[in-house]
């Protein structure tokens, strides 16, 4: 397992502000590009489906990056991963700005930059769950929830004004200032002992090909892409059944509650992504607003969500995970129903929907990040650990003095 150095000056809590700052800035840039999809479409004369590709492929990279960085966090120090994060963000930003006239290069630059952003968005959660005491984890994860909502607000508003008064391409170079965080990372992030870990490259490749097939089908509705998806699903089932070091175990899919949580996270995050992208289109087609004016529609809702995110740690100590998630789901459904029925009534209706949606999303996020059950790495294949249960009310994994390894974090999060 990873062990934190014995230097008292390097208290693991000292590194939380800078890692949370990188997390926040990464999300601001990512959400900013999602909101600027319409601006990119208009400037480069693309269809809506083509313009959204830079956001959907970036989402794919972030999803796979979460697993990759969790694996690397055992064999590579947290400092080096954060350095890599900042360098990739800066390199992708420079390429994107320099070649902003070519959409192909824009997508490539976005993928490079998002590979770094994925580290920023993932390593904070890994750091908290590995190196901080269990009693404090919900509070710190609540901070990350508030940061997520703040990033959506700041990213949307900033990108709206940048796209309107400067150029959407300027969003590529803004995160280059993150290189200034490197000396702080060097000073505050404690050293860790590297240990060997298994890395399921084949499993990740199969997932990437399968999800890419789904995305391409949704772009062009070409049935040939469904063949790729079907082959990918069959290959993934074969892989996890035949290889002990696979990303997940077959037993993962038999744990109905945990599988339900993963499906829930997928649906909620997908709706969240679509919601952000749709707002500028709604502002233009329904209310005849410019991109910067449409971004202001998000302000009240995401300001409320920031408050909910900050309070989510307190809520987590008083309400069960089951009740919290149910309330959040009702709020999300109500928000979408309000928008669907009354969007043409006026801006106030849409803004009311935006208040309910991210606030409900913020209240559920820490519970989804702290999974309800896990398969113990030390137990028999498929047998639950004595320290974990399949109850939705089970507490988060504790952080022992020797800390959790990232492979344990992956098993807790993904059941693998």
Descriptive notes:
This protein is globular. It is mainly α. Helix content is 72%, strand content 0%. It starts with 15 loop residues before the first helix and ends with a helix. The model is unreliable at 1-7, 371-403 and 407-416 (pLDDT under 50).
Name a few traits of the molecule.
single chain, mainly alpha, 2 domains, globular, disordered N terminus
What are the SSEs and their pairings?
Elements: H1 16-35, H2 37-44, H3 48-75, H4 78-98, H5 103-131, H6 134-165, H7 170-173, H8 182-188, H9 201-220, H10 224-242, H11 256-285, H12 291-296, H13 299-318, H14 321-342, H15 347-369, H16 406-414
Q: In CATH, what is the class of the largest domain? A: Mainly Alpha
Q: In terms of structural class, how would the helical and strand content be classed?
A: mainly alpha
Tell me the β content: under 5%
Q: What is the typical, i.e. mean, pLDDT?
A: 81
How is this structure best summarized?
With 416 residues, this protein is mostly helical. The chain is 72% helix and 0% strand. The protein folds into 2 domains: 361 residues, MFS general substrate transporter like domains (Growth Hormone, Chain: A), CATH 1.20.1250.20; 46 residues.
């Amino acid at each position: 397992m990873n062990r934190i150095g014995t230097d008292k000056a390097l208290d693991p809590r000292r590194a939380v502000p800078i890692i949370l700052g990188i997390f926040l800035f990464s999300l601001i840039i990512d959400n900013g590009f999602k909101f600027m999809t319409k601006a990119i479409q208009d400037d480069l004369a693309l269809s809506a489906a083509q313009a959204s590709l830079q956001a959907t492929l970036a989402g794919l990279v972030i999803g796979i990056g979460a697993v990759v960085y969790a694996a690397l966090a055992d064999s590579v120090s947290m400092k080096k991963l954060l350095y890599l994060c900042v360098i990739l963000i800066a390199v992708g930003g420079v390429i994107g700005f320099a070649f902003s006239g070519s959409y192909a290069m824009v997508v490539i630059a976005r993928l490079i930059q998002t590979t770094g952003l994925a580290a920023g968005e993932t390593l904070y959660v890994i750091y908290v769950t590995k190196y901080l005491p269990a009693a404090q984890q919900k509070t710190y994860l609540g901070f990350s929830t508030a940061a997520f909502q703040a990033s959506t607000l700041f990213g949307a508003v900033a990108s709206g004004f940048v796209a309107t008064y400067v150029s959407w391409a300027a969003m590529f170079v803004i995160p280059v200032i993150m290189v200034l965080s490197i000396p702080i990372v060097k000073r505050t992030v404690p050293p860790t002992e590297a240990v060997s870990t298994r890395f399921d490259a084949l499993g990740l490749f199969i997932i990437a090909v399968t999800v890419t097939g789904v995305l391409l089908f949704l772009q062009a509705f070409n049935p040939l892409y469904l063949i790729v998806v079907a082959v990918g699903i069959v290959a993934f089932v074969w892989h996890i059944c035949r290889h002990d070091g696979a990303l997940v175990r077959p037993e993962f899919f038999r744990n109905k509650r945990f599988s339900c949580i993963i499906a829930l996270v997928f649906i909620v995050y997908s709706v969240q992504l679509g919601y952000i992208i749709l707002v500028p289109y709604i502002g233009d087609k329904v209310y005849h607003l410019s991109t910067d004016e449409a971004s202001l529609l998000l302000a009240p809702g995401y300001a409320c969500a920031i408050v909910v995110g900050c309070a989510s740690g307190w809520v987590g100590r008083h309400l069960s995970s089951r009740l919290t998630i149910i309330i959040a789901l009702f709020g999300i459904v109500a928000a979408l129903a309000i928008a669907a029925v009354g969007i043409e009534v006026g801006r106030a209706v849409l803004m009311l929907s935006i208040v309910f949606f991210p606030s409900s999303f913020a209240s559920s996020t820490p519970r989804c990040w702290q999974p309800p059950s896990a398969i113990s790495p030390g137990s028999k294949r498929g047998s639950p650990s004595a320290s974990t249960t399949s109850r939705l009310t089970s507490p988060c994994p504790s952080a022992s003095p020797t800390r959790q390894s990232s492979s344990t974090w992956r098993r807790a999060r993904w059941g693998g």
